[in-house]
Design a protein that fits this description.
14 strands; hypothetical protein yedk fold; globular
């Protein structure tokens, strides 16, 4: 009897991550208002609602947004191209990113770890789980926008920022359209500067996280499907 061939799918650069319990994030983030409710998840995928923190009227608020930015000019219709990642080099030039950046629409996508895929010599793309050694929860530096549809309904959405990767991520993320990149990771003590600082102060937070403070291990191909979700997805792959 022949079994199914393994799925060889891999998500876009930093296209999957995990969420800790809501209480852990709320202990790590200074929030003035909370408009979210979520549970721990182990395979967050694009287009899904995700918890983000943004500055609003002098306070930080926690809200849910669609992951995959829909520009204000798109009238609520998701673009046909991927908008889950915003490259830091194009924040002021791309029509999609420059509006949110100009208007200070910065946000933080909260996370407890993420996945990346490495192209092996065999041709298989092996998923890795990556997390921080020095912080159980952290954030991806991001931007957000609000788009209003022709029916008057509004949707708020976000994208995380990427930049050239450190040595660990360059080793793992070795294929695809933009190899060698990584998400802009913020430790909790950097959150305020990203949300409340000037554009120059915020950009100073966007740097490759030190690889010596990160850990990675291969995990099951089950993470390839967003239908799978559970703590077993982050378990080290057995030899």
């Amino acid at each position: 009897m022949t079994g199914r061939r393994p799925i060889r799918y891999s998500a876009p650069m930093c296209g999957r991550y995990i969420l800790a319990q809501q209480a852990k994030f709320e202990r790590a983030v200074r929030l003035g208002r909370v408009h979210w409710e979520f549970t721990a998840r182990f395979n967050v995928a694009p287009s899904q609602p995700v918890p983000v923190v943004r500055a609003d009227a002098g306070a930080h608020e926690g809200v849910m947004m669609r992951w995959g930015l829909i520009p204000f000019f798109a009238h609520g219709v998701p673009p046909k191209y991927s908008t889950i990642n915003a490259t830091v080099e194009k924040l002021t030039a791309s029509p999609v990113w420059r509006g949110p950046w100009k208007h200070g629409q910065r946000c933080i996508q909260l996370a407890a770890g993420f996945y990346e895929w490495r192209l092996e010599e065999s041709g298989r793309k092996q998923p890795y789980f990556i997390h921080l050694i020095d912080a159980p929860v952290f954030g991806f530096a991001g931007i957000w926008d609000r788009s209003v549809g022709t029916d008057g309904s509004a949707i708020e959405s976000c994208a995380l920022i990427t930049l050239p990767g450190n040595t660990l991520l360059r080793h793992i993320h070795n294929s695809g359209t933009h190899p060698g990149r990584m998400p802009a990771i913020l430790a909790p003590d950097q959150f305020d500067a990203w949300l409340d600082g000037s554009p120059q102060e915020a950009l100073a937070m966007v740097s490759a996280y030190p690889p010596e403070h990160m850990a990675a291990h291969p995990v099951s191909l089950k993470v390839n499907s967003p239908r799978n979700d559970g703590p077993d997805l982050i378990e080290p792959l057995r030899a």
